[in-house]
Design a protein that fits this description.
By secondary structure, the protein is an alpha/beta fold. The chain is 43% helix and 13% strand. The chain has eleven helices and eight strands. Helix 8 links the parallel strand 6 and strand 7. Helix 5 runs parallel beside helix 6 and helix 6 runs parallel beside helix 7. The protein is globular and about 60 Å long. The structure holds sulfopyruvate and magnesium ion. The site of sulfopyruvate has 13 residues, from helix 3. Belongs to the isocitrate lyase/PEP mutase superfamily. PEP mutase family. It comes from Streptomyces filamentosus (Streptomyces roseosporus). Keywords: Lyase.
Length: 271
């Protein structure tokens, strides 16, 4: 259950995945939670992670992950696909699909991926709290989790703004806080975790740009879930590129066969 996996008493890891196959590989790799990555799902359609795909496209990918595994799926739902009414329908649809929880971020639609260059406009605290309240009101099972993602550091804001937002979002009903950053050293994330006075609400991090901050450090700073959001996607891109270039250059798969999964491995992943 997602609620247990992100409890403040323990520490879990989530793999960012983009379809049923990557979800199943993450499950066999020992992860606790699946992150239905907006970046990954967008990349699987070869479009930017800039609010291009529809909710239904993201939902279909999350449903495939949920159907393929026993792991709880935490779906990256960007800004909630609209205003409070869109958020309410989104919750209904994700919950019906069996997804364990959703994460919405406090940027304005259309959002841009957080790791790119360029400015990011943040939603007002009041506007985002209204979305969280709509989400919590719309859920029909008590186990469903709504994560509030704070983009203050991405937008160039300071710790005081991040803390103000975290407190407000918990007040509006958020079950967990994801504090995002694209800093190179992760210092602002570790500082936030250590100093945020709320020691009950689960804290989530996405250590993409600060890979030297390991799970132990995140746990010690008060985090309960580390989301490895895009490593599976990046690994698969490298593997596909290397393999396909080999074939086009050599006109054969000799020298490649031992580096790629056997067809029987594919069958196994397909059950
Ligand atoms: C994603 O995986 O889509 C995320 C994390 O939202 S990030 O790409 O860092 O914004
Ligand atoms: Mg995303």
């Amino acid at each position: 259950m997602l609620r247990n996996a992100i409890s403040r008493d323990g520490f879990s890891i989530a793999a960012g995945v983009h379809d049923g196959l990557s979800a199943r590989i993450a499950e066999s790799g020992g992860f606790d939670v699946l992150w239905a990555s907006g970046l990954g799902i967008s990349a699987s359609y070869a479009v930017p992670d800039d609010s291009i795909l529809t909710m239904t496209e993201f939902l279909n990918a999350a449903r495939a992950m949920n159907d393929a595994t026993e792991l709880p799926v935490l779906a990256d739902c960007d800004t909630g696909f609209g205003d409070t009414r869109n958020v309410a329908r989104m919750i209904d649809q994700y919950e019906r699909a069996g997804v364990a929880g959703v994460c919405i971020e406090d940027k304005v639609f259309p959002k841009r991926n957080s790791l790119g260059d360029g400015s990011q406009d943040q939603e007002t605290v009041e506007g985002f709290c209204a979305k969280l309240e709509a989400a919590k009101k719309a859920q029909s099972t008590s186990d469903f989790v709504v994560v509030a993602r704070i983009e203050t550091f991405i937008a160039g804001g300071d710790r005081a703004d991040a803390v103000r937002r975290a407190d407000a979002y918990v007040g509006a009903g958020a079950d967990a806080i994801l504090i995002h950053s694209k800093s190179k050293d992760g210092a602002e994330i570790l500082d936030f975790g250590r100093t945020w006075e709320n020691k009950h609400t689960p804290l989530l991090a996405v250590p993409t740009t600060y890979p030297q901050v390991d799970a132990e450090q995140l746990k010690a700073a008060g985090f309960s879930l580390a989301i490895y959001a895009n490593q599976a996607l990046r690994a698969s891109i490298t593997a596909m590129q290397k393999s396909l270039i080999h074939i086009s250059q050599h006109g054969s798969t000799v020298g490649l066969e031992s580096d790629i999964a056997a067809v029987s491995d594919v069958f196994q992943l397909q059950n």
